[in-house]
Write a structure and sequence with these properties.
By secondary structure, the chain is an alpha+beta fold. It has a single domain, classed as CBS-domain (Roll), CATH 3.10.580.10. 46% of the residues lie in helices and 19% in strands.
């Protein structure tokens, strides 16, 4: 299965924020949208970075409550791993496991077109396993 299949099921909406937003604004956005990371974009909508809940927690641990007034730019991950719609779920799982992160933006032709979370990957793998089990049961009972 490929990333395009996951996006077809979950949709292509990507929640973004500018790098000049504060960590407090970002935390509020994450909480309101019930998501764990937000893609940081530049003025033209290009990918600048990614900021996760973990990044906010680390900033607070290092700087205290004052961190919430700091900008996203100082705490976002700049070197973002990306995938394409043709990336396989197996390759995606390997990248996420190796990099120890839970969100990967999907980029096609330089354009942000989705985001995949570890939850999306797990949901997809469970659905695949259920389908395979059902197919095997049908095969066995038909024979």
């Amino acid at each position: 299965m490929q990333v395009r299949h996951i996006l077809h099921e979950k949709g292509r909406e990507v929640v973004t924020i500018g790098s000049d937003a504060t960590l407090s604004e970002t935390a509020d956005l994450l909480a309101r949208r019930h998501i764990g990371a937000v893609v940081v974009t530049d003025r033209s909508g290009g990918l600048s970075g990614i900021l996760s809940e973990r990044d906010i927690v680390r900033a607070i641990a290092q700087h205290g409550a004052e961190a919430l007034a700091q900008s996203v730019a100082g705490h976002m991950t700049l070197s973002v791993s990306i995938c394409s719609e043709a990336t396989t779920v197996d390759d995606l799982m390997e990248t996420m496991t190796r990099g120890r992160f839970r969100h990967i933006p999907v980029v096609e032709d330089g354009r942000l077109c989705g985001i995949i979370s570890i939850g999306d990957v797990v949901k997809t793998r469970i659905a695949e396993t259920v389908r395979e089990a059902e197919s095997l049961r049908e095969y066995i009972t038909a024979g």
